[in-house]
Amino acid sequence: MSDLTTPGADGEFGAYIALPATTPAPGIVVAQEIFGVNQVMRDVCDWLAGEGYVAACPDLFWRIEPGIQLTDKTQAEWARAFELFNLFDVDKGVEDMKKTLAQLRRHDACNGRVGSVGYCLGGKIAYLMATRSDADSNVGYYGVGLDELLGEAERITRPLLMHMASKDGFVPPEAQEKIKAVFAPHSRITLHVYEGQDHAFARPGGEHYDEAAAKLANDRTLAFFKETLGS
Length: 231
Description:
Layout lengths: L1 E7 L2 E8 L6 E7 L7 H12 L3 E5 L16 H13 L2 H17 L3 E10 L1 H12 L5 E4 L18 E6 L7 H11 L5 E6 L16 H19 L2
Parallel strand pairs: 3-4, 3-5, 5-6, 6-7, 7-8
Antiparallel strand pairs: 1-2, 2-4
Helix pairs in contact: 3-4
């Protein structure tokens, strides 16, 4: 495990990178939650590396404040996380993800096939990676604000897997219905809805963590990446 530095159009930014035991291997760019590249995101990278992938999580908040690492355990951290969320430029974040993806494709440990996965804010970014990048495949967990971006769905030409929580407090029922209506007929999108689950049900230690639902979603993610990226 080490750090990766990526040159962007307006400055350099860092990423946490985890390497599998055997290389070259497919790569996965991990899009962070609103808490920065914290232990949860590093654990995701380590988990993916353990499954045979080169995994990198770029610091998408670097323009606001580099190196943010918050938890979901205190009100003060939640307040700071939402402040960062409101300051964050999603379009620039997608460009950072694309830069990281391109660098990962060229990495000595990578075989050139690269996808993305994202959680919460990162779930939205993973969707936009499907609409705006050349990633080989993408996975989004409980993405927020997708109902405002559905006009981009027609651009998706590569496989996209989405995990939705039916009781997501950040994605109201009417928004979920709009998303389902657009995603259902799309040949490249697979949408799984987790009944009774709330936002961040796959975040270990989180308020809404559900072990069974998290395992099901993660198993589906691994099967999807194995099919679309190899292992």
